[in-house]
Input
Amino acid sequence: ETGVTQTPRHLVMGMTNKKSLKCEQHLGHNAMYWYKQSAKKPLELMFVYNFKEQTENNSVPSRFSPECPNSSHLFLHLHTLQPEDSALYLCASSQGPAGGLADSYNEQFFGPGTRLTVL
Amino acid sequence: AQSVAQPEDQVNVAEGNPLTVKCTYSVSGNPYLFWYVQYPNRGLQFLLKYITGDNLVKGSYGFEAEFNKSQTSFHLKKPSALVSDSALYFCAVRHSRNAGNMLTFGGGTRLMVKP
Output
């Protein structure tokens, strides 16, 4: 399988449930990202990982917990979510620098997303 | 701080006609600019990027974009639109601070191409 894959593609959960989103990239990249895309807001960057280390947390509530066990896999653990968290969650990867160095401009490759509905 | 504006929520164009999707940006330092396209129920796909050099950048599917520094714009263009070009288009700029590949996206413009 090639590119960036995400599972599940659709998820419906209650506010008291715990679930996880999975992202896998087969591109040999070393940077991975989680984005939230909702109808009311443009793409919101949530987390960034470079070489398995989290380098950015864009003020995301603690009910979202990322995990990056290696450069190819990224998870988003969900617990006690709110209805307003319903959105399309997109994963992306890129050939990124270590340590957030300047002059890096490699494009990001996106997965198809997980459509999350919180009841 | 950096920002991107896409002033049109939707652009309608007839098949065969030229199309333009507008984007303006604000960033300190050199702008690194990108266009992505999103088809229904899909993730974003990279179209093209401007880093340096020629102001006219050519990308995938016959699209091109013109970088205009004085107007701080990076409009997406195509000489002849196809119905299959109908999708959501996002302009993005790389973060100003020393942050690798992080991007700030515009709000998106829906392109509708009618036969």
Remarks:
- Chain A has a mean pLDDT of 88.
- The interface with chain B takes residues 4, 6, 31, 33, 42-43, 45, 48, 50, 55-56, 90, 92, 94, 96-97, 100-102, 104-113 of chain A (CB under 8 Å).
- DSSP finds no helices and eleven strands in chain A.
- The longest strand of chain A covers residues 18-25.
